[in-house]
Amino acid sequence: MPMLLASTFTVLIFASPSQAGNSDWTKTPGGSVRLIIDNPEKGASEVRGAVQINLDPGWKTYWREPGDAGVPPELALTQDGNIKSSSLGFPAPHRFEDGGSKWAGYKKSVALPVVLTLTDPSKPAHLKGHAFLGICEAICIPVTAEFDIPIDNSPTDALTKTLVSDAFAALPGKASTSFGVKSAVRKDDHVKVTVQVPADQPQTDLFVAGEGGVTFGMAKLKSHEATSAVFSVPVLSGKDKKAVALNYTLVQGENAVSGKVEASE
């Protein structure tokens, strides 16, 4: 895995002003980052947005489960601002091999969808905080992109609406019985995951993320027959837990689905 730069990195901001509902671009080596917001209609309880990550050629960033030494993207709010909760979404990642390490991430510019839940939909909100992520070439640089955005019912410009809509459209579909995890069985420090896929194709991959203190390594394909495949997923932390939850993205060719499954011994 690319080495993480331990020293503090000071980000630079572009001089150009941001549009209403969008943060300034945070300039970094290898790219730039900003947060955009699609202002909600009056009375709506949820607000949609996206963390835009522009990457220069040769640079990469991490998926939600980076393994044992990566930097997962995070969204942190520094004040209430009438926002009850926030969540990040993730398009299907790519598998990378750097030396002897394997990890999941993105090799091209990517937009991570954001969903904000308002405490009181009848009142304006204020989004203040930062996005934290790693941008990697030979080494990985931790990046903090700050934002301070008022949220009201004023009209959102057409470009921002399109960018946010495209970010959500790029998310994996919902897993089903014909395309998803069929079973997950925990055995010692590994989970055996059997998946069902719609076509007999070799380009099948599985990416797994944990929760509640459980982290997973990269899934390894053990067998592939017709429309099913078996993966072995190492448990990196939380090995003392008998049952673990796997948030997964299953990819076959250009198609991907996401879901969640419980694995027990």
TrEMBL record:
Keywords for the protein's UniProt record, in alphabetical order: Signal
Top-rank taxon: Bacteria
Protein name: DsbC/DsbD-like thiol-disulfide interchange protein
InterPro entries: DsbDN
Signal peptide (residue range): 1-20
Keyword Signal assigned: yes
Organism taxonomic ancestry: Bacteria, Pseudomonadati, Pseudomonadota, Alphaproteobacteria, Hyphomicrobiales
Domain Thiol:disulfide interchange protein DsbD N-terminal: residue ranges: 46-147
